TrEMBL record:
It comes from the Eukaryota. GO terms for biological process: protein import into nucleus; ribosomal large subunit biogenesis. The gene is LOC103374091. This is HEAT repeat-containing protein 3-like. GO terms for molecular function: unfolded protein binding. Pfam families: TPR_SYO1. It comes from Stegastes partitus.
Length: 678
């Protein structure tokens, strides 16, 4: 069904922050009194009115912890928690401000989009904006000369920026307030704290990366100060994984802003952005993670036993939260799907610096790969929709036979000369392919052996999946010669086959399966178009197809069917392939007939058109599997299914493509009838 686009990656929604170690101990030391429904909301919210700052701080810290259990959130919302916590952001006590902001941050993160919109509706943006302005004014205030006090102001700012990030990710109204309230300059001030507080700078960079995406209203108000701050970060050279993450986020923000840059600076900025991503991908997590774990072990050997016990307990709490929230549902922003990536690095206690560095490394590499995917995607507003176009019988249909707008969507994807040149010059395709390898055993073993490091296993696997998606995008936008020609493509195909078939049985990991199959489809499509020999055996092909058809993810089934079509149409040109074509045809007929999703049915039919369009081997195979009577029986069922299920369940574009396939099915049946009469 033609070349497919990869949907642009949206920034992951921010997630909950953990309590400081002392707050955790304080909360655990006292049992909260529970309401009838098992939620301590009423008593904790009542304590917010206490004249004692310590009691107010305790109440906020308790709320921050309790709402991480999502089942408790309704109890707080029913008791007007947002309106009662809002004034706490401007409390006279800085520790209260910090814990209150953390509580709202956790509430927004664990409650999802609906809670975020409710918070904005209850005007949380007003005290939040005031708090951020006060924090930034306090950064350089001569009235607060004490170093520790100054750090507390930055800690409050860090919580506030993260709450702002979460709200803007989930609520278009929050984003509108951000645009109109001049908060951009405030967040940039937080970014500029990088020499003193890289954690705050990273939070600000995450926020900027989010608010600059698909936000033309904000981009119109950009000034040289904003660009200068981002470029200063990009050109910084501090060592450490946290700084790599900071530079990566700055690169992503500059890419989001590319359309607002002066024309004379665009090429230079693209080069700087790609160079930053390239340096990040050069880092070898398989080597660095064991080294960081060894450094942590050395640190523990030299530290007092009591300190180690406290850090281990806090890290265990963090890992539990990571495990509970790892499989969060997808959120939506402005009607678009947002892939939620739960990053709980902030849950880690401050003593776990090596683990923070390892987490920053993997987050930076994942983000780098997502930015490259977005570079390879067009700005077409339909990027978030299914865009599989029918390639069969295009010449027969002519312009009038296509639905309005379909011809534009079928135009080849392409990169600008600047982006294409930068990606090639910095060897991005080769580096992305390297990242598609399975995580090294040494790194996996280190993480398995240490409970506090176990959360990194999923992160390493996600980097691999993002690399596969990135490879798919690169294959969809570059020509074979740019990627190294036939030998390089065959090597990549062999590598992908090893990823899929190297294990004793096919993986059931849907995220990996979705990414690797989309990459394999793009690669096999390119190989077929250049008449390069395929590297997958029929047995591998069928086992892949069988595994994919059992997958719940529609795109996995669509791409697996497309791979069958690509391989079958190539084999149809060769002698002695009728038996394999029968196997492929039978599998495609089963999918076209039995799959519950019309999109998958359509892809299977389109693949059948390609495989059995021409050639003696195809004719023999079609006769042996009784293709003509099978399609005749399927035709009225397919038409009725489109009529019955189409409206409401599928997008107008999907229906347009399905109508096109319906027409092609009628024509293909006519073609087979002529073949039978020969």
């Amino acid at each position: 069904m033609g070349k497919s686009k990869t949907a642009k990656f949206k920034r992951p929604q921010f997630n909950s922050v953990g309590l400081p170690v002392n707050a955790v101990k304080e909360v655990d030391a006292e049992e909260e009194q529970l309401d009838d429904d098992g939620c301590p909301a009423a008593e904790l919210l009542e304590k917010l009115q206490s004249p004692s700052a310590d009691v107010r701080e305790f109440a906020c810290a308790s709320i921050s912890r309790v709402v991480q259990q999502s089942q408790t959130i309704p109890g707080f919302l029913q008791r007007d928690a947002v309106r009662r916590l809002g004034p706490m952001l401007l409390d006279s006590s800085l520790p209260v401000r910090e814990t209150a902001t953390g509580a709202l941050r956790n509430l927004s993160a664990c409650g999802g989009q609906e809670v975020c919109e409710d918070m904005v509706k209850h005007d949380v943006m007003t005290p939040l904006t005031a708090l951020l302005r006060e924090c930034c004014a306090g950064f350089e205030s001569a009235v607060v000369p004490m170093k520790e006090q100054k750090n507390l102001v930055e800690d409050v700012a860090n919580e506030a920026v993260n709450l702002l990030w979460n709200l803007c990710e989930s609520s278009s109204q929050a984003l509108s307030v951000f645009n109109k309230s001049g908060l951009l300059d405030v967040v940039v001030q937080c970014l500029e704290r990088q020499p003193h507080n890289v954690e705050l700078a990273i939070s600000a960079a995450h926020c900027l990366h989010t608010v600059t995406e698909d936000n033309p209203e904000l981009l119109c108000s950009l000034n040289t100060a904003v660009l200068g701050a981002l470029e200063n970060v990009l050109l910084s050279s501090q060592p450490g994984m946290a700084h790599h993450l900071l530079r990566t986020l700055a690169a992503g923000t500059l890419w989001n802003m590319k359309g607002s840059l002066p024309a004379a600076r665009q090429a230079q900025t693209v080069t700087a952005v790609v160079a930053t991503l390239s340096r990040c991908l050069d880092l070898d997590a398989g080597t660095l993670i064991p080294e960081l774990r060894e450094a942590e072990a050395l640190h523990h050997r030299n530290a007092p036993a009591e300190t180690n016990a406290e850090e281990a307990a806090a890290a265990e709490l963090a890992v539990e939260e990571m495990d509970e929230e790892e499989e969060a549902p997808k959120q939506r922003r402005n009607g678009k799907a947002v892939k939620v990536d739960n990053d709980f690095s902030d849950l880690l206690p401050r003593g776990k610096e090596e683990l923070r560095e390892a987490t920053a490394l993997l987050t930076a590499q994942q983000t780098s790969l997502e930015i490259i995917v977005n570079m390879c995607c067009s700005d077409d507003p339909s990027d978030d929709e299914w865009e599989e176009e029918s390639s069969s019988d295009e010449s027969d249909l002519g312009p009038d036979g296509l639905c309005d707008g379909l011809s534009n969507l079928m135009s080849p994807l392409c990169l600008s000369a600047e982006v294409h040149g930068a990606l090639i010059n910095h060897s991005i395709p080769e580096k992305v392919l390297k990242k598609t390898e399975f995580p090294r055993n040494e790194a996996m073993d280190v993480c398995h052996q240490n409970p506090s490091w176990r959360g990194l296993i999923k992160k390493m696997q996600r980097v691999q999946s993002r690399a596969l998606t990135c490879l798919h995008s690169i294959l969809s936008t570059m020509d074979a010669e740019s990627l190294g020609g036939a030998a390089a493509l065959q090597g990549a195909a062999q590598h992908l086959s090893t990823l899929v078939f190297g294990a004793a049985e096919l993986t059931k990991d849907e995220e990996f399966l979705e990414a690797v199959i989309s990459a394999m489809r793009s690669l096999l499509q390119m190989i077929a178009s250049k008449n390069i020999p395929q590297c997958m055996t029929p047995q591998q092909l069928m086992s892949l197809s069988e595994a994919a058809t059992r997958c719940d993810v529609v795109s996995v089934r669509v791409n697996a069917v497309a791979i069958l079509g690509i391989t079958g149409s190539t084999l149809a040109k060769e002698k002695g392939t009728a038996e394999t074509l029968q196997m492929i045809g039978t599998a495609l007929l089963q999918v076209a007939t039995r799959d519950a999703d019309l999109v998958v049915n359509g892809e299977a039919l389109d693949a059948l058109f390609d495989v059995f369009a021409d050639g003696d081997e195809a004719e023999t195979a079609a006769k042996n599997i009784h293709l003509l009577p099978a399609l005749k029986a399927l035709q009225p069922v397919f038409k009725a299914k489109i009529r019955k299920e189409g409206k409401g369940k599928y997008t107008p574009q999907q229906l347009c493509v399905l109508d096109n396939i319906k027409v092609n099915l009628r024509r293909f049946i006519g073609y087979l009838e002529k073949v039978v009469k020969k």
